[in-house]
Write a structure and sequence with these properties.
heterodimer; A: 260 residues; alpha/beta; Rossmann fold; 2 domains; 5-stranded parallel β-sheet; 11 helices; 7 strands; globular; B: 578 residues; 5-stranded mixed β-sheet; 4-stranded mixed β-sheet; 18 strands
Chain lengths: 260, 578
């Protein structure tokens, strides 16, 4: 007792607000979260938000306007640690689909024409580490309750998060599912970061890759497994691109490197 | 001048706000701004398989995720000619009701109620309303539980797919849902009495048009194959564009909608206004008990309508579960062969009519159009905020403007990630019109002088136009010169600035730049509505039109302009020359 509580802020940039909502959806645990730490800012949950020094900032969403960028740079200055929460903050999210600037501009014009925006100048969507140093990445679309609470508890006790680095397949085996690849269904489990609890395969459906690409797995062999199953490179790439954001290029560049 | 601001509107899901500017006795600006970045969802969904888009499109919004899921599924299944078994349709309805329970209980108790009982947030409210705060949380959890059971997770569940579900809930899970729903009934009645009995302020009341889906079975419901309006008009699902008529405004990345040039409302209040008489059972009784004419014109009754829909949902769930239990077999996912087609899906999201439209060519999605409820409500939010602000200003209650606009915005339950947090009311600085005129000048506006020749101050607009021409200002017209040609059409991309006297309740000679829209929303502002010109403008043009107005001293008979108005004309000319 008597130890000062950590000051924590939850921020939303451009996205679906699903990661902040997931924290609100922690319901019973939400009161514990509010008691265990000083929640300095959390727009979805409270009105009296402060812009002061922070121990930890949890940032959701991708940087998609100049305003997002300004807010993020300010948060980084005020926070000791920045944690990217969710696929949009970690890799740019679905809205980082147009990686080439010209391609983005072309598609932007298709939706908005040549209109000049007066309030929040739109820019090509990027993950938050494109602009600031990010200490930890908590993946998911949206983040998972169990992994969020475990991470929150570790951060509160001064420990770094302990996140899975292996693919969904490992969790899928824990759930004793039959491998969908054996039924010739294109499942992205082998290439996708675990943490969701292999939820789609538990529902007899193939993994859509929504937690983004795995960081440290035997990706090459998993990838070759998909090729052996008869899926072509382009199809795998296209499917993986849906939730890999700006990481897709380096992800596939690595395979090329390893192949040589 | 002054600007009232609610910067970062808290307790609204998403990223935006409302800004209002007050100049003396007139509200010169109301903007519902959405700062959420452009995500280009309608573009990045192109080139994917229908299955990929069923996964991606609901990522538009976390809170309406299953409404988006049902909308994309209905559209895709229409496009691909997939007919799903009854059990699938019933389970999708249960999933949708779960989202209604979750979203409505969160909104009415946690986001709206604190405003009406004088607390900054729900946690603080717990001291006076411990029971409400606790049971509402359980109610929201129950909604979440249904969503998770049917879709696979709380948010962005992947279990509902084209042709059915990956996995079906067990009998035990469904029976639990039925019994749990029944346990909530006493609190549900309390919820309806509480929100139908709140003291909703009269400002801002104004007539409007409501739109929602028309359920095929003639009952109250959450989706349909056509749109029905409070005017009685009906639109087939393929004709949705004749309702929404989307257009853009510079201050927001969310598109706007107008029907026949007028704003319209979607959401719980729209459904209750249009379909309320179809409510059965206890919800029907409560509708008859509480519904009255004020519900037809006061957006604050969105909260009461949502409470009625909580009752509707809780009454519907047990019966729905019984129907589902009649189908013990889990149907396999319906396969399809079609590679090409187009389809529209209409559903009611908790905050209103949601439209998804897809075209599929050779197995890949080739065109996408998604129209969210908040995008349709954006014009209404601006209009009702304006009406509230101007009315309160007229009544000398300027200090109430900010909080009242806050109530209005929040009542619409805007889901801003799918389209915007803030209300800001500012006093405009001295001579604010100069800055506004300078901004307009950059956009190469077309000036149109309006008035009656030779009639006291009513000739000021014409006089100003003639003087501007003499001073060499480009594109200046008189009202009469526009009657017979097509100048208005050809100048469509440039803003129109009408030069006229405007009754602002101000000192004679006061100058203000007002959106033309305000004049249409408030008949007191102008002595007449420029009928010869305004009838020929599209709403996009109206949205892009302004009045450079001067407060007259007199517009009665007589030939002389008053000195104050003459002085105002000189000031404007000086400004235009600089």
């Amino acid at each position: 007792m008597g130890k000062e509580k950590l000051k924590i802020g939850v921020y939303e940039l451009t996205g679906c607000a699903g990661d902040a909502l997931l924290i609100v959806d922690c319901e019973e645990e939400l009161l514990n979260i509010f008691q265990a730490a000083d929640i300095e800012a959390f727009l979805m949950a409270k009105s009296d938000n402060r812009d002061g020094e922070l121990d930890v900032a949890l940032v959701e969403g991708s940087v998609s306007t100049e305003k997002d960028k300004g807010e993020l740079l300010d948060i980084r200055k005020r926070a000791t640690a920045v944690v990217a929460i969710g696929n949009c903050a970690c890799v740019g999210g679905i809205q980082a689909a147009f990686l080439d600037k010209k391609d983005w501009e072309k598609n932007f014009k298709k939706v908005y024409g040549n209109l000049e925006f007066s309030q929040a100048k739109p820019i090509q969507s990027k993950p938050i580490d494109a602009y600031v140093k990010v200490d930890y990445f908590l993946p998911g679309c949206p983040i998972g309750k169990e992994q969020f609470l475990a991470t929150f508890a570790r951060v509160l006790s001064g420990n770094p998060p302990d996140l899975y680095r292996f693919p969904v397949c490992v969790e899928c085996k824990w759930h004793e599912n039959d491998c969908l690849l054996n039924k010739d269904i294109l499942c992205l489990g082998p290439l996708t970061l675990a943490g969701c609890g292999s939820i789609c395969i538990n529902h007899n459906l193939p993994c859509v890759g929504c937690w983004g690409p795995t960081e440290e797995a035997n990706r090459t062999s998993e990838y070759h497994l998909l090729l052996e199953k008869g899926y072509d490179v382009e199809t795998i790439k296209k499917r993986m691109a849906n939730y890999s954001g700006t990481r897709i290029a380096e992800f596939f560049a690595q395979f090329r490197k390893e192949k040589k | 001048m002054k600007r009232i601001s609610i910067d970062h509107l808290p307790r609204v899901e998403g990223n935006g706000g409302v800004f209002a500017t007050v100049d003396g006795n007139v509200v010169t600006e109301v903007k519902f701004v959405i700062n959420e970045g452009a995500r280009l969802i309608e573009r990045l969904t192109v080139g994917k398989t229908p299955e990929e888009d069923v996964s991606i499109a609901p990522r538009i919004c976390a809170i309406c995720t299953l409404s988006h899921k049902n909308a994309v599924l209905r559209a895709m299944e229409n496009a691909l000619g997939v007919k799903v078994p009854t059990k699938v349709t019933l389970l999708r309805e249960l999933m949708h009701l779960g989202e209604f329970v979750e979203s409505h209980s969160l909104h009415v108790f946690y986001l709206a109620l604190p405003d009406y009982v004088g607390f900054p947030n729900a946690i603080a409210m717990a001291s006076k309303f411990p029971f409400e705060v606790k049971i509402a949380l359980e109610m929201k959890q129950f909604g979440n539980h249904i969503m998770k059971t049917l879709s696979g997770r709380y948010i962005h569940g992947e279990n509902p797919v084209i042709g059915g579900f990956g996995k079906y809930p067990t009998r035990e899970e469904l029976v639990w849902v039925k019994n749990r729903a029944n346990q909530f009934m006493p609190f549900v009645f309390r919820t309806v009495e509480l929100f139908c009995g709140l003291d909703y302020p009269e400002v801002p009341e104004a007539d409007t048009v409501y739109a929602c889906c028309n359920p095929e079975d003639g009952k109250y419901g959450l989706w349909g194959e056509e749109i029905v309006l409070s005017t009685g008009e009906k639109l087939a699902r393929e004709d949705y564009k004749s309702l929404t008529n989307e257009f853009l405004v510079p201050h927001s990345l969310s598109k706007r909608s107008r029907y026949k040039g007028n704003t319209y409302s979607v959401g719980a209040l729209a459904r209750v206004n249009v379909l309320g008489e179809r409510l059965e059972g206890e919800a029907g009784k409560m509708f008859n008990k509480h519904f009255n004419n004020r519900w037809k014109k006061n957006p604050l009754f969105h909260n009461a309508a949502q409470a009625l829909e909580i009752l509707y949902s809780f009454e519907r769930i047990p019966g729905l579960v019984n129907e589902i239990l009649k189908y013990p077999e889990d149907p396999p996912i319906v396969p399809y062969k079609a590679k090409t087609g187009k389809g529209t899906g209409l559903v009611e999201a908790p905050r209103g009519l949601l439209i998804h439209h897809y075209e599929i060519t050779d197995g890949l999605v080739s065109d996408v159009d998604i129209i969210t409820p908040t995008a349709q409500n954006a014009e209404e939010i601006e209009r009702y905020c304006y009406i509230a602000a101007q009315k309160l200003l007229d009544e000398g209650r300027e200090e109430k403007i900010r909080d009242r606009m806050d109530l209005v915005v929040r009542a619409f339950d805007p889901c801003i990630s799918c389209s915007v947090h803030m209300v800001e009311v500012k006093r405009a600085p001295e001579d604010d019109w100069k800055k506004k005129l300078a901004d307009l000048k950059k956009m190469e506006p077309v000036f149109i002088g309006v008035g009656t020749e030779g009639r006291t101050d009513d000739q000021a607009g014409l006089e100003l136009a003639l003087e501007m021409r003499k001073a060499g200002v480009n594109a200046v017209y008189l009202e009469s010169e526009l009657e017979d040609d097509h100048n208005l059409e050809t100048k469509a991309q440039r803003p129109f600035v009408f030069l006229d006297v405007v009754q602002m309740g101000e000192q004679p000679g006061k100058i203000a730049v007002l959106p033309l829209q305000h004049v249409f929303w408030n008949s007191v502002l102008s002595h007449r509505l420029l009928p010869s010109v305004s009838n020929r403008l599209t709403y996009e043009q109206i949205k892009n039109s302004y009045i450079l107005g001067i407060q007259p001293e007199s517009i009665e008979d007589g030939s002389q302009m008053s000195p104050s108005v003459k002085k105002a004309i000189e000031k404007i000319l000086e400004e235009l020359k600089s």
